[in-house]
Design goal:
This protein is α+β, with helices and mostly antiparallel strands and about 240 residues long. The chain folds into two domains: about 60 residues, Arc Repressor Mutant, subunit A; about 140 residues, Chorismate lyase-like (Chorismate lyase, 3-Layer(aba) Sandwich). Helices cover about 25% and strands about 30% of the residues. The protein contains seven helices and eight strands; from the N terminus they run αααββαβαββαβαββ. The strands form two sheets. It has a six-stranded antiparallel beta sheet with strand order 3-4-5-8-7-6. Strands 1-2 form a two-stranded antiparallel ribbon. The longest helix has 14 residues.
Length: about 240
């Protein structure tokens, strides 16, 4: 006969599990100060080194945030970003059973220095620029302000963006390799507020995104959405 013994869980791992349970249960809410290393040493009857390892690993996993001279806190945001699939706004609207329409405000060639820098193009180059309002059942839900790399999309200005979205055209021309993005809440300027039919003081949800194709920056885009009419969602 043979038997297998269950390996004991190391003390530092038990402390990590304890900390996670406290956070998940709400006993230690986000941004709250957790007990000190000294207090955890007394509570668990282990060495300072064991507690230090547990907290160090939880900090590396972005569960905790250690502030010099202040203590260790529960991280305020569990994830640094939200997984968002890059899809055409028209596809999303039609997927809800609604009607998409758009209004092209600007479609031009530009030498804007910030746009060239964002697209990693030389200072003597140019970029393409479009500004489009997207509507769902006649209600504006997105102001798209986009700069495009003409090396990847030389025929961008020739497209009819009333019948196809920039995203649909670009995806068809060159498959995207990767993306980086930031989501913020901002007050729109007068132009964005007017185009999105918003009241003064109402905030926007703004998605700033850069994408790459063929190892080059493909596009730099700001997507403005009325906060009262829009939300981001996804699964990961």
């Amino acid at each position: 006969m043979s038997s297998t013994a269950t390996k004991p869980v190391p003390a530092y791992a038990q402390i990590k599990d304890y900390v996670r349970r406290q956070i998940e249960s709400g006993a230690w809410p986000m941004d709250s100060l957790i007990p000190s290393e000294h207090e955890l040493v007394k509570q668990f009857g282990v060495s300072r080194m064991t507690v230090h390892r547990a907290l160090r690993e939880l900090t590396a996993e972005q569960v905790l945030n250690r502030v010099q001279g202040a203590g260790t806190f529960v991280t305020g945001q569990k994830y640094q970003s939200t997984l968002i699939e890059i899809k055409s706004i028209a596809e999303e609207i039609k997927g809800r059973g609604d009607q998409h329409s758009s209004e092209v405000l600007i479609l031009e060639r530009t030498s804007d220095t910030k746009a060239l820098a964002a697209l990693e193009l030389p200072a003597d180059a140019y970029a393409f620029h479009s500004r489009i309002v997207h509507f769902e059942n006649g209600v504006p839900i997105q102001l798209e302000d986009r700069f495009v790399n003409p090396r990847l999309y030389p025929h961008y200005l020739e497209q009819d963006f009333h019948t196809i979205t920039p995203n649909e055209y670009m995806t068809r021309e060159a498959a995207l390799q990767r993306a980086e993005y930031v989501i913020t809440a901002r007050l729109p300027d007068a132009v964005a507020r007017h185009r999105l039919q918003m009241e003064i003081g109402d905030p926007c949800l703004v998605l700033h995104r850069r994408t790459w194709a063929h190892d080059q920056v493909a596009t730099d885009v700001m997507l403005w959405h009325p906060g009262s009419r829009f939300q981001f969602s996804g699964r990961f």
